[in-house]
């Protein structure tokens, strides 16, 4: 198989201003991370005895995992349900997920007190710990994503095409495993907070937190696919699969209605309606999240015109993501209440207010910048977006029964 | 001293005079810096309305819960709960994720924010002085307390003692022993003259806070297996249907040719 030249140097590695900005952000993050390794987390962050988790967890872990959910959604749609028309979206979403999880892993290496012991999670198991489940799922899912993405890399090298072929042949078990793992840890990020009934505000704490997290991860994943396709089509001047994105956009209101019903149904059952208007800032945050993340997008994306224009789609996706990311921040940070400093034990000698410091944010930004840069490079040098026309014969799926791609013969 | 089946503390807030000798004793006994103390004495200021003014102090350290949330949360199992009470932490396993700090409803575990990876940043918390209690001595804080605000003994006996003290001075105490049932029972029991919330203690149900998350964790494996089976079935079904359709359309194409 010849080298796919259409993928290659349409845009050259010229250090555009954007690349410089990204590289600078990465450099700053690197320096800050080195300081943290040398002198401790306290030197660069505002984390304290009463706020052991802060911006890193809310942004890198909670948001990072949530926005990577497009990968399993597309893998499930294309491979399991065999809705082949979504094929063009598969590789970009798997790539986003892969990079997303790598970013999560890197951020955790900064956040953990003993980063070199991260592999202890593989051998020392405390089966009651939700965090263990998340750790194991994320590690396994990273492997699955690497396998799902490997053919994209291998296709670039004619000599190893056989390997790509082999992976395609046995991809199904990995896809199923990946969907199971994703379901598990998307939801168990919610379970992570189940242990804080006395700290998390009742508007958010519910025994069905895992279900809420999974339900919202679906709209986040769909919105993220729209966002990343739209942005990359703008930046790389390639065509936009508007008709496909419109179909995804149609699914978002459905997912959001289910989410909203679950949310308010749960509040009704738990008898927490009283808090809706009486909890001051918490009520405002709650309504902000619901208005931005649920109600507005349901209306916006139910309008056909919005779904069919590139700008309408992008706007819709940004609204969904804004509201849902606010949800992740609320659950993991804003709504977690630590008791009054004066009366509370360890805190009388530590700072009980938490506000992320600049270096803390710089670490997250740097990791994010690296992710964007990696996405750009991959899109440039690998057949991520334009794989549709080639290599049909390697796409034998499920027992080699038939090509999975919508190939020319049907 | 009698044989102790379940080690426990009893703290009587009415007796504490805020001398902080226990903090010093703990630091000396366990060789830790004063600013990283495992025991805290918090003055709560003056409460109540004139002329019924009250002044309170509260002494806190790990409650040594019967169903420790720190232990339930720790991914690598760095915590152990001894049959006879103490909850201890093993730094050799800890990865420093600080989930235990989130999980503990009392905010007990502490973290070395000032240590880099070479020294290693670990969790620290009260150990119940195993080096002392298993050698027939009282924990350092208890031994030092000049007013017997902190006492040590068998949990059952201390609970009986606390209730007897309430019965003896019904006007002095709130009729409740904090820790008898809170969070599924703790080994640090508290008697108070002011509402417990004023001492900074969270209002916890009798079921341990880790109950829901442990239940969810139990369902994880069965759920994963079930979901995997469903997905496999769907995959096979869709593939078969797809192939049939394809064969049919091919046939049609051939016959129309
Ligand atoms: S008080 Fe906190 S640290 Fe101590 S045993 Fe209970 S949950 Fe663990
Ligand atoms: S910080 Fe250490 S002890 Fe605490 S939960 Fe994490 S691994 Fe366990």
SSE topology sketch:
The complex is a heterodimer of chains A (410) and B (257).
Chain A: H1 17-39, H2 41-44, H3 55-67, H4 70-80, H5 87-111, H6 120-123, H7 130-154, H8 161-169, H9 171-191, H10 209-235, H11 242-270, H12 275-278, H13 281-302, H14 304-308, H15 310-334, H16 358-381, E1 396-397, E2 402-403
Antiparallel strand pairs in A: 1-2
Helix pairs in contact in A: 1-16, 3-5, 3-15, 3-16, 4-5, 4-9, 5-7, 5-10, 5-16, 7-8, 7-9, 9-10, 10-11, 10-15, 11-13, 11-15, 13-15
Chain B: E1 7-12, H1 21-30, E2 40-47, E3 54-60, H2 69-73, E4 79-81, E5 87-89, H3 99-103, E6 110-111, E7 123-124, H4 130-133, H5 140-144, E8 150-154, H6 155-168, E9 188-191, H7 211-256
What would you say this structure looks like, in words?
The complex is a heterodimer of chains A (410) and B (257). Chain A has helices spanning 17-39, 41-44, 55-67, 70-80, 87-111, 120-123, 130-154, 161-169, 171-191, 209-235, 242-270, 275-278, 281-302, 304-308, 310-334, 358-381; strands at residues 396-397, 402-403. Chain A has 410 residues and is mostly helical. Chain A folds into two domains: 23-199 and 358-383, Formate dehydrogenase/DMSO reductase fold, CATH 1.20.1630; 201-335. A two-stranded antiparallel sheet of chain A has the order 1-2. Chain A is globular. Chain A starts with 16 loop residues before the first helix and ends in a 7-residue tail after the last strand. Residues 1-11, 340-351 and 387-410 of chain A have low confidence and may be disordered. Chain B is of the alpha+beta class and 257 residues long. Chain B has two domains: 7-209, Alpha-Beta Plaits, CATH 3.30.70.20; 210-257. Chain B has seven helices and nine strands. Chain B has helices at residues 21-30, 69-73, 99-103, 130-133, 140-144, 155-168, 211-256, and strands at residues 7-12, 40-47, 54-60, 79-81, 87-89, 110-111, 123-124, 150-154, 188-191. In chain B, strand 2 (40-47) and strand 3 form a beta hairpin. The model of chain B has no long low-confidence stretch (mean pLDDT 89). At the A-B interface, helix 1, helix 2, helix 4, helix 7 and helix 9 of A face strand 2, helix 2, helix 3, strand 6 and helix 7 of B.
């Amino acid at each position: 198989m010849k080298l796919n030249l259409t993928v290659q140097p349409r845009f050259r590695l010229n250090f555009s201003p954007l690349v410089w900005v990204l590289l600078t952000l990465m450099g700053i993050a690197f320096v800050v991370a080195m300081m943290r390794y040398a002198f401790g987390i306290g030197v660069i962050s505002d984390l304290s005895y009463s706020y052991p988790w802060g911006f890193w967890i809310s942004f890198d872990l909670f948001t990072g995992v949530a926005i990577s959910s497009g990968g399993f959604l597309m893998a499930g749609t294309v491979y399991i349900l065999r809705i082949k028309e979504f094929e063009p979206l598969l590789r970009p979403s798997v790539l986003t997920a892969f990079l997303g999880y790598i970013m999560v892993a890197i951020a955790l290496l900064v956040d953990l007190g003993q980063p070199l012991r991260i592999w202890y999670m593989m051998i020392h198991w405390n089966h009651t710990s939700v965090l263990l489940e998340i750790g194991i799922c994320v590690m396994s899912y990273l492997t699955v994503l690497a396998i799902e993405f490997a053919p994209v890399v291998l296709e670039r090298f004619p000599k190893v095409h056989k390997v790509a072929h082999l992976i395609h042949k046995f991809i199904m078990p990995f896809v199923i495993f990946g969907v199971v793992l994703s379901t598990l840890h998307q939801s168990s990020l919610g379970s992570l907070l189940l242990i804080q009934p006395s700290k998390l505000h009742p508007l958010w704490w519910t025994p069905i937190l895992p279900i809420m997290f999974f339900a919202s991860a679906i709209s986040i994943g769909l919105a993220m696919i729209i966002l990343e396709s739209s942005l990359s089509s703008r930046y790389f001047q390639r065509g936009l699969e508007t008709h496909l994105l419109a179909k995804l956009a149609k699914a978002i209101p459905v997912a959001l209605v289910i989410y909203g019903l679950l949310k308010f149904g749960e509040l009704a059952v738990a008898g927490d309606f009283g808090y809706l208007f009486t909890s001051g800032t918490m009520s405002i945050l709650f309504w902000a999240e619901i208005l931005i993340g649920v109600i507005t997008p349901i209306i916006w994306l139910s309008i056909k015109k919005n779904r069919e224009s590139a700008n309408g789609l992008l706007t819709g996706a940004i609204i969904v993501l804004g509201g849902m990311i606010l949800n992740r921040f609320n659950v993991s940070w804003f709504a977690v209440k630590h008791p009054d400093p004066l009366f509370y034990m360890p805190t009388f000698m530590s700072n009980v207010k938490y506000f992320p410091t600049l270096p803390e944010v710089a670490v997250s930004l740097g990791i994010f910048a690296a992710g964007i840069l990696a996405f750009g490079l991959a899109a440039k040098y690998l057949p991520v977006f334009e794989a549709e026309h080639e290599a049909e014969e390697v796409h034998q799926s499920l027992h080699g029964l038939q090509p999975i791609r919508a190939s020319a013969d049907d | 001293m009698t044989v102790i089946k379940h080690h426990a503390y009893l703290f009587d807030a009415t007796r504490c005079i805020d001398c902080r000798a226990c903090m010093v004793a703990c630091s000396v006994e366990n060789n830790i810096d004063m600013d990283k103390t495992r025991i805290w004495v918090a003055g709560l200021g003056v409460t109540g309305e004139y002329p019924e003014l009250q002044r309170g102090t509260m002494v806190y350290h790990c409650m040594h819960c019967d169903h420790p949330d720190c232990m339930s949360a720790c991914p690598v199992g760095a915590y152990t709960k001894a049959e006879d009470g103490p909850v201890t932490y093993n730094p050799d396993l800890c990865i420093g994720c600080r989930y235990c700090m989130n999980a503990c409803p009392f905010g007990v575990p502490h973290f070395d924010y000032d240590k880099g990876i070479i020294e290693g940043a670990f969790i620290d918390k009260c150990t119940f002085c195993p080096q002392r209690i298993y050698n027939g001595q009282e924990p350092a804080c208890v031994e030092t307390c000049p007013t017997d605000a902190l006492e040590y003994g068998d949990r059952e006996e201390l609970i009986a003692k606390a209730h007897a003290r309430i019965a003896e001075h019904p006007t002095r105490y709130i009729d409740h022993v904090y820790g008898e049932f809170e969070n599924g029972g703790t080994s640090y029991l508290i008697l108070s003259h002011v509402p417990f919330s004023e001492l900074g203690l969270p209002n916890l149900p009798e079921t341990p806070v880790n109950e829901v998350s442990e239940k969810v964790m139990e369902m994880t494996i069965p759920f994963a297996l079930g979901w995997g089976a469903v997905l496999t079935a769907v995959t096979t079904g869709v593939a078969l249907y797809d192939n049939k359709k394809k064969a049919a359309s091919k046939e049609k194409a051939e016959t129309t040719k």
